[in-house]
Amino acid sequence: MHDEPPRSRVFIAVLLLATLTILTLDAKRSDGHSPVDPMRTLVATMLGPTEDATAALLRPITDLPAHFRRVDDLRNENDQLSRQNAGLRTELRTAAANQNRTAELHRIGAFGDAKDFTIVPAQVIGLGPAQSFTRTVTIDAGADDGVKPDQTVLNGEGLVGRVISTSATTATVLLIVDGDSTVGGRLGPSMELGFVRGDGSVSGDTRLTFSLVDDTAGMRRGDTIVTWGSQNGAPYLPGIPIGQVTTVRAAQANLGEIGSVAPFVDFSSLDVVGIVTRADAATSAHATTQAGAR
Amino acid sequence: MKAVARCLSVGVLIVVAVTLQVSVFDHFSLDGVVPDLVMLMVIAAALSRGADYGAFVGFAAGLVLDLAPPADHVAGRWTLAMLLVGYLTGLARGDARPAPLATVLTVAAGVFVGNSVFALTGFALGEPGVHVADVVRVVPLAVCYDVALTPLVVPLVLLLFRRIEPGPPRW
What we know:
Number of strands of chain A: 12
Oligomer: heterodimer
Order of helices and strands of chain A: HHHHEEEEEEEEEEEEH
Strand order of the largest sheet of chain A: 1-2-5-4-3-12
Order of helices and strands of chain B: HHHHHH
Mean pLDDT of chain B: 86
Structural class of chain B: mainly alpha
Structural class of chain A: alpha+beta
């Protein structure tokens, strides 16, 4: 490398330094805010519409396999019906949990009907690759539609995740299967509280883990887990179905049990999702109770 | 003026590659693994113009990939990985016209290094969701997928870079 001009080394060194600066700045983020965020928003504002347009352009083609699959559907109808049956049973269980909850909430008089919220529909337009080891998607609704970070994202089957950042027309959603995701979950039958964690696994048959707060409480195979919600419904609203316990094993040092949970949402074929942008009944009722207590 | 136009062309190419990788190729994922289109582009840039140019394009492309939605990791991880990939594959570039087999091997090595560096920075920064088992599964799969796509993608991108930057390397 004798003929290499010194200018080249300097150039590479500058690029490396710039990279390390960005890495350090972003790694040092304090309570969710990073100095790199403005750059992130800028790139999202520029690339969001491009991703959106590309996804829209491609939709007729990507829907094609679904069209051909319809032929197979006839053969699979029996299969589907049994699955539907199972789904309905699940719904029933969730309903029981929600009924429990409603009765309880009516007793304390804190909440009204938890269903009184506004949902913004959106379509998934971009997916993080497995090589990034995170499970995030881009959706085509953003700040202009009233979407803000820490809002609940769901679809017809159940909980999808929460919004972590927005641009004007797009938003990034952290899926509950991401290794960084923890959701407060409630066991449907016993109303016991616990935490549902994603394992960041990128394989097709996604599993979540569920651990109870109370070590002495138990769970059973087939138990349904719903969200128990957080302060002011952010990031998660209460009562949204998450998944079903498939296997239960003892935790280390015999402290309680850990359940493996199959999510209701099929994360490999996410398409239309809804973002809960307003949960008036829950928040305002909560706010008034708090104000009244003071 | 020409330099500005060239930078713009490279910028457009990066945006196209990132968009394709995020919004189109996710439909062709193997077990979640999406072809590293952006990395193939960086390698092609390095093969056509050498280490410094490769490092520069790698830096820019990695930065866009780090910041574009739906990325959620610490920004700079892809930047570092792509910068190294661009630089190293540029150094590995031999004489004027590499043999097809040499190109494929360079791509395989480059993709392996890039994905490994990205995973390693994840370990180093304690990012959630990075498990050895996943890395061991994802990286070889990504290498295979990218190598399979090399004959389709790399010649095309090489051609584009020759049009953007005609003549002998400047750096």
